[in-house]
Amino acid sequence: MTPLNEQAYNYLQKLIMENHFSYQEVYSETKLSKELGISRTPLRDAVHRLAQEGYIDIIPSKGFMLHQMNRKDVNETFQVRSALETYCTVQISKASSTRKVKKLFKELDWIMECMNDIMGTTHSIKEFSEYDFQFHTKIIDYLENEQFSNVFAMFMYRMKRLAELSLAHKGRMEQTYEEHMAILDCMKNGDTSHIYEITLKHMETPRDINLEDL
């Protein structure tokens, strides 16, 4: 059985990710706990976890609201991503000839094919974004560093939200695909002298777009 606080967290996270909450409304813990059929304690645990992960802001004695990202949020999110992903792509490039990395490259090739199909058919930002984060998550998870994976997961909501906003700009989807291909090709070639710069560029371009949108 999944603990009640975990159930509440998953329920609220799903509602947020599927855009069921409004940025203008304050949501009551009491009302939501009744909807879920649980006490306020596990719901409060879930709310505090979501607040720590940047999904929501707690309004004392009232409830919570969706968190509106600001310039600090954008910069911090991309700084974390850049630090983690540049390190990982450098390590993958160093090990480009190993069996483990070649397996990773096959998985990334498949993701790139899926992204290319979306660009040529539905052009769905939501679908493209999902494959986008599969690409990046596999790169992070390659190192099997539990702390890296946990930090990356903690920022996932912000990263997805910012990615969807930047992908709404004309041509950004195609640009993202090309940047992914550049990263993948560089890693396959074991090009350790350029992979850091290429990965960092992929972080900085959408960051600048997101900052301009604020």
TrEMBL record:
<dbReference type="InterPro" id="IPR036388">
    <property type="entry name" value="WH-like_DNA-bd_sf"/>
</dbReference>
<dbReference type="InterPro" id="IPR008920">
    <property type="entry name" value="TF_FadR/GntR_C"/>
</dbReference>
<dbReference type="InterPro" id="IPR036390">
    <property type="entry name" value="WH_DNA-bd_sf"/>
</dbReference>
<dbReference type="InterPro" id="IPR011711">
    <property type="entry name" value="GntR_C"/>
</dbReference>
<protein>
    <submittedName>
        <fullName>FCD domain-containing protein</fullName>
    </submittedName>
</protein>
<dbReference type="Pfam" id="PF00392">
    <property type="entry name" value="GntR"/>
</dbReference>
<dbReference type="Pfam" id="PF07729">
    <property type="entry name" value="FCD"/>
</dbReference>
<feature type="domain" description="HTH gntR-type">
    <location>
        <begin position="2"/>
        <end position="69"/>
    </location>
</feature>
<keyword id="KW-0238">DNA-binding</keyword>
<dbReference type="GO" id="GO:0003677">
    <property type="term" value="F:DNA binding"/>
</dbReference>
<keyword id="KW-0804">Transcription</keyword>
<dbReference type="GO" id="GO:0003700">
    <property type="term" value="F:DNA-binding transcription factor activity"/>
</dbReference>
<dbReference type="InterPro" id="IPR000524">
    <property type="entry name" value="Tscrpt_reg_HTH_GntR"/>
</dbReference>
<keyword id="KW-0805">Transcription regulation</keyword>
